[in-house]
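Anyone else keep sequences and structure tokens together like this?

Example one:
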Amino acid sequence: MPVYHEGSRALQDRVGVRETADHVGRAIGDGIKPVAAAFLELQPLLVLGAADPETARVWASPVTGAPGFARATTPHQMSVTGRVRPGDPLAPALATEGVRIGTIALDPRTRRRMRLNGRLRPTPRGLAISADRVFSNCPKYIQRRQSYEVVADRGAKDPRRGTELTAHQRRFIASADTFFIATVHEEGADVSHRGGNPGFVRVDSPRALSWRDYPGNSMFLTLGNIRSDSRAGLLFLDWTTGTTLQLTGEARTLFGADGARRVRFELTEATETPSALPLRWSEPEYSPANPVPAD
């Protein structure tokens, strides 16, 4: 599989960073190196992203467990013990052999992240993913959270579904400092992270939100996917209460006259699940790379 497809290449060329992207892209491999395997085994949270094979909608969903629940069982396979909660919108995809899936393990304690994309195989205890692409990213825009605790008696409440954001959900998004975005293309799926100071995501209407695309590693994997296939899934977490807000819809990138990029997301469906995750993280220390939201 080539490192970049035409969607990413088109954006790299528009911004003039193809040479930089080629250099950074050498870090993408198809194997899980020992240092990556060790990092993965320390994580209590993994975010998965894929397209539902029936509805074609793209969703991002979290899975949690004691460290070691996600681990490299071979240099080319990750196994996950555990499943998404019953009724999670991504559950049909995770039960389908061969589905293309993206994953990200992000550690707020060390401000490190690892992405592994590949093909899914359901297992009796969870799932296994045969790796096509494995790589890490720089710590830009990751908020440091020094520690977490497991709230053993916390249980997911009934999900709230809708086609418009409620007033509470709009406030939740407007106060977020982190979200995850799942995107797809004909050769695979990917999950990435977006972060910034609260207010970096703007709620434009009950069915639309947007955010400025901050300078990154010049790969343009997420925006490249969006250019080729507009479907996307967003995941917002409440790092204290464990509430999750999952959105699915379509995204597009807007370019300003000054070259600044803004991504606009149009909502198709929202699922909010109170107390979905048993993790309670400490208060954030915002990344020094975060720009002050200006619009």
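And example two:
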Amino acid sequence: MAGEILDNRGRGDAHWRLPPVHPEGRKFALIAAAASLVTALLAWETLAWPLAFLTIGILAFFRDPERVVPQGDDLIVSPADGLVSLIAEVEPPKELTIDDGSGTRGLSSGPVTRISIFMSAFDVHINRAPIGGTVKRLVYIPGKFMNADLDKASEDNERQHLLIERPDGLLIGFTQIAGLVARRIVPFVKPGDLVASGQRIGLIRFGSRVDVYLPAGTAARVVLGQTVVAGETVLAEAGTQQLIEGVSQ
């Protein structure tokens, strides 16, 4: 049940269930299902079966499972499901650092660790807040639709920057990036909204990427090639730097 507290001593109630489908995807599934039904009634089986499988694929793509969000003052959780495809020291995007005239401070300039998470068409595409706080910026940038796995996609592709400020002033910036197939970034929040860590903040349709910019002096707690889960995997602990190694098996 959403909002239920679970812990490592057995508190709470957990059981398997089919994940619900997000409302954003239901209209596409209904269209595909209706087309499949019509073609079946017309005995056009060569079209009816592919459309039926397309309906199932759409329902799977827009699945929206519940997540158990780890609680901790300095924990930064993954905003996306997918593969950690890049970890690099970079300058944050200017949209997250410049004075935008709103009176809201942005990220400080200077290299920080960026974690890039690539979402394939098979991953859950609901994105979640990496920390709890207030949404300070939401900046949409039109662009290209190159492979989101490429480093230059951070600067060339269609994208949306978000900035969240914790009550103690810690700022986390992250960017939703459209990919080859993804053609729309759908926000669920707006500037001024209060969000909890792990709360749903938007989705990207059909394959994409999310970049997270860690605070200065913070190292990743995930490794390159690791699969992460939105709202559950801890990407970093603010102010903590530690070498973490993994072995591919």
